[in-house]
Amino acid sequence: MHDRIRVWYRPMRARAIHEPHRVSTSLELLFDLCFVVAVSQTSSALHHALSENHVGQGVFHFLLVFWGIWWGWLQFSWFASAYDTDDVPYRLAVLVQIAGGLVIAAGVSRAFDGDFTVMVVGYVLMRLAGVAQWMRAAQSDPEHRATALRYAFGITVVQIAWIARLTLPEPLQLPGFFALFVAELAVPVWAERARPTTWHPHHIAERYGLFTLIVLGETVVAATTGIQEALREGENIGALISLSAAGLILVFSMWWLYFDQPGHTRLTSLRKAVTWGYGHFLIFGSAAAVGAGMEVAVDRATHKGHLAQLPAGMAIPIPVAVYLIFVWLLHIGPTNECRPIAIGFPFAALLVLGASFSSAPVHTTAAIAAGLVAVVVLATRGHPVEG
């Protein structure tokens, strides 16, 4: 009888920071799976905007929308790393958070048209479910009560402000967004100063790695679309298959470069964790944008879309260059003792940007990324890799 009660409800105590064998749970994987929908919707909306030659507006809305998706995912992941009790109330709260994520996905297309109402509803729903989790932590974990209450208070105030922003006149909508963007980023920094939560470095690195796989998956889908187009249209089959092969090599190289060195070794302090965790927005966002860029390349090969040659040629190299730079900054380090790697990443990023002006930007970018992988393999040959 007592065992069943403990399974149904457990006090939400902080998990040990050095807990052995701390890996992602099946519930976290389900959460990620539902967020695949939101990421896919956002990548598709960016592709549509680029194809219609709405480059500036499309990229801008992509960054706004993707930030909302990423921030909700980030907040869930760091909380779960410290307080995953896996009891019934926790699972039901996560269900509400998943529902919020799906509402966000449903509102992506409207957001790209400038109407963020549905996205805000889903976002606030997801975040307020997180507030309930923090209140449970405040009740059950006296050592971190001040931290949990700061989180609950800060998140609640900001969510009220998000709803109030919907009533602002048009000229104040964008300034209001950036003000709340800063407020959202400030809440964890302020809360953690009371007493840092016991997030698990290995677990956090694994969670970020899994989300990296999700966003890289958009490029795999786009490469598959190229082959489907080739089979359906019966035209430019060789070009589309070649394009898909280049996309596959590119995404494989991006995966290799991200996972070549363990991320948890960078999570040695709160300051470094904040920089590492927040900086991944540009890794995730650029990887998702590569998927949209592949769709643009397929459009170009099948003579669809309205994007000119040069902007279309930039759709892959620019996000790949951003990806390489931030993997270099967050995973490799400019002062890395292995100089070929420390220098190779920014040099490759510059070469990738130059690929925008080539006659085959996707193939050239893939070749450069694969070349960087070769440099990494040769430079680290014989060196032990920490797991």
Question: What would a concise description of this structure say?
Answer:
Helix content is 77%, strand content 0%. The protein has helices spanning 2-8, 26-51, 55-83, 88-106, 108-112, 117-140, 145-165, 170-192, 201-233, 237-259, 270-301, 309-314, 317-332, 339-354, 361-379.
Layout of secondary structure:
Blueprint: H1 2-8, H2 26-51, H3 55-83, H4 88-106, H5 108-112, H6 117-140, H7 145-165, H8 170-192, H9 201-233, H10 237-259, H11 270-301, H12 309-314, H13 317-332, H14 339-354, H15 361-379
Helix pairs in contact: 2-3, 2-4, 2-9, 2-11, 3-4, 3-6, 3-11, 4-6, 6-7, 7-8, 9-10, 9-11, 10-11, 10-15, 11-13, 13-14, 14-15
Quaternary organization: single chain
Indicate how many domains the architecture comprises: 2
* Percent in helix: over 70%
Helix tally? Answer: 15
What is the CA-atom radius of gyration, in angstroms?
A: 22 Å
- Give the DSSP E fraction (strand runs of 2 or more residues): under 5%
List the helices and strands in order. Answer: HHHHHHHHHHHHHHH
Report on the biggest sheet.
none
Structural class: mainly alpha
N-to-C span: 41 Å
